[in-house]
Amino acid sequence: MNAESKIKFVAIDKTLFFPTLKKRVEQYFKENHKSKYADKRMVLKTIVLLTSYALPFLAILLLAPDFWISMVLWLVMGAAISGIGMSVMHDANHGAFSKNPTVNKWVGFTICLAGAGVSNWKWQHNILHHTYTNVANLDEDIKDRGVIKLSPHETVKPFHRFQWVYAFFFYGILTLYWVLLKDFIQYAHFIKSGLNRQTKRENRGMLAGLIVMKLVYFGIFLVLPTVVFHIPFGFILAGFLLMHFFAGLMLTVIFQLAHSVEGTQYPLPNPEGVIEKDWAVHQMETTVNFSPGNKWLSWYIGGLNFQIEHHLFPKICHIHYPGIAPIVRKTAKEFGLNYMEHQTFGMAFRSHIAALKKFGMPGMNDGIV
Question: How confident is the model at residue 101 (pLDDT cuts 50, 70, 90)?
């Protein structure tokens, strides 16, 4: 039996918070004659982001700009792929892009534009992170990676006191690590843990698909420009690494600002494997919104600044989060729950730095649950 199947949420004090909230949100869509899925704005965003990813690469291949101009184009690609990951792929793989599962499936494959596999992402994100948010050893997003400590329940090592400085370098290499190693490490880990319940035949097919996808990915980005278009390999490698560093930095920082900040809780199950909270209350206590009034940021990061709404309603397209946020805030207040929110990106970023410092200092994590 895998570890997460043993952990359950059992509320000591029963609450009608989520049933009440769910009913009100459903009423919002009904009264405003809206679908909870994507609309024309989302379709336009998808086109803009995909175009912003493809056109710079075509320009690099066909126009052969000088080194520094090509670096700018690679940087644009990095911004585009992180936007695709946060806005397009993310919604689709939650089933929130379209009511048609086939559309969600194919749009979800845009994760391959970053060289990553979709199945592992769904297990890591949809199941582990969304169910067991900020629960040590279950939530992969705060899992102890040795060099960075994102939970108060992991052993503090001497170098962790400096993690608030060096963490951002490791954030930047996240997507490159994902392309090269993470998919294969997770493939083996999820089979061993029992989270991946596919048959051996299905897993052989999945592994073959991962290998082929990554060979095609590296072929297009590293071999094609050099062999066919005769662009110096050093130029291409530098740009490829820059693209991944920027994308990794953006993706990781945005996700950390919602959970690894001051004020969030890091509960542990009791010896019986029970977290004595209602699941929705747990989400409220482990999740923080930021920059709710910044429409440009919200557009680019796929509404992940409305992380509370996303965690409570992951199957609703992110373009609707600003509309339902007042409902969530009001209902939380009625039930005595804290609706945590940083009003600006800067406030959230500083709070993340403070959390990194706290987690990295011996004795600073006492009392955190």
Answer: very high
C-beta atoms surrounding 287 within 10 Å: 22
Buried b (16+ CB within 10 A) or exposed e, 307-324: bbbbbbbbebbbbbbbbb
Q: Do 65 and 232 contact (CB within 8 A), yes or no?
A: no
Cβ neighbours of residue 150 closer than 8 Å, sequence gap 6 or more: 141, 142, 143, 144, 256, 260, 356, 359
Alpha helices in 5-66 (DSSP H): 17-31, 40-63
The β-bridge partners of 8 are 274
Tell me whether residue 365 is exposed, middle or buried, using C-beta atoms within 10 angstroms of its C-beta: 0 to 12, 13 to 18, 19 or more.
Answer: middle
Scan for tokens 């998919």, then name that residue. 183
Quote the pTM value.
Answer: 0.91
Predicted confidence (pLDDT) per residue in 218-242, tens digit: 999 999 999 999 999 999 999 999 9
Least confident range from 64-78, 227-241, 267-281: namely 267-281
Residues sharing a CB contact under 8 Å with residue 310, sequence separation 6 or more, in sequence order:
303, 304, 318, 321
Strands 289-290 and 274-275: unpaired
Structural contact between residues 192 and 3, judged by C-beta atoms closer than 8 angstroms: no
Residue found under tokens 């912003």: 52
Please report which helix (H) or strand (E) contains residue 290, including its range: strand 289-290
Write out the DSSP string of 99-123.
SSHHHHHHHHGGGGGGT--HHHHII
